[in-house]
Amino acid sequence: MPDPGLWLPDGTACIVAGGRGFRVRKDLLSQLSLPFRVYIFERRDRSGITVEFQGVPCYWVPDSADDMATLLRAIYDGRKYLMKQAPHIRFSVLSALMRLGREYALQDIVDDAADYLEDYFTPDFQTFLQRSNGTHTEKFRLSERDKAAGAAFEAVNLARLTRKHTLLPLALYHACQHAPHEILLGITRTSGAVVSLSRDDMVRCISARRGLLRASSRLAHVVHRAECAVGCAEPDMCAVYMARLRAAFEELRVDLWTVDALAGLETQLGALADLPCWLELCEECREEMVRRHRGTLRETWGKLLDILGLSAEELEIEWETQGKAVDVVSQ
What we know:
- This protein is an alpha/beta fold.
- Helices cover 58% and strands 8% of the residues.
- Helix 5 (91-103) runs antiparallel to helix 6 and helix 5 packs parallel to helix 9.
């Protein structure tokens, strides 16, 4: 069945994927992609078997119709194809471009798609903080639906497949947020497909969850060492609220440890953030605790590769392991 959106009047070849036909310029694809030219067009032409549809020869590819449509639109529209969708780009679009871009040796398409993914799975701590507090101008926003469908698992696999290793630390970190049974068994999507990690990355995530729990326990230092801010207008009252916060924290501390060790302070405080002992603190005192917590996040960030069992040298990436705190409020 012809794809009405990709049935070009000047097309000289019909690419057939998943039962759908795309009439395109054979010379353009041959020029851009060696695999298209050698393995799809020339091999088929040498076979002497000719099937035509509406006057042009047909060439079958093993890819799904949706994936091939995505790739061809990116080829014909160029970078504006993703730009006009940003930041609400479907994860499946970026995945298709990275997988098929690699398959058909279209490195510019792989790079462009990976650049959008890197906006979310960032290797930069300041970008991570700004994204957490909503001050970052997003190029790509991962939907809750895609998160639940195992986008982090697929992002890990894409990073491995295309050697876009800057994506790997945060992709693995997000994979660790899934339940252990999902990490071990994978996630079944509505299509029936199962997305899962490699065995090595399964083991890596299960092991890393313990390290992330230990890292989140540093929240205790933030709470117990909290002091009134220099600009506090009511130090006596805030001192009372802080004492109550510490007491409430002690009752719940075990329940507050989380594998989401890079979460903002209010997220990690959980139910405590809804209590008067937090809400009644003055703004200056709350922001001072946020600043101190940001220091623990930086320490966790610096140790993240070790927690995940990764090496910056082996991955050939840069990763910030220490440095002065960035003055960005992470709430």
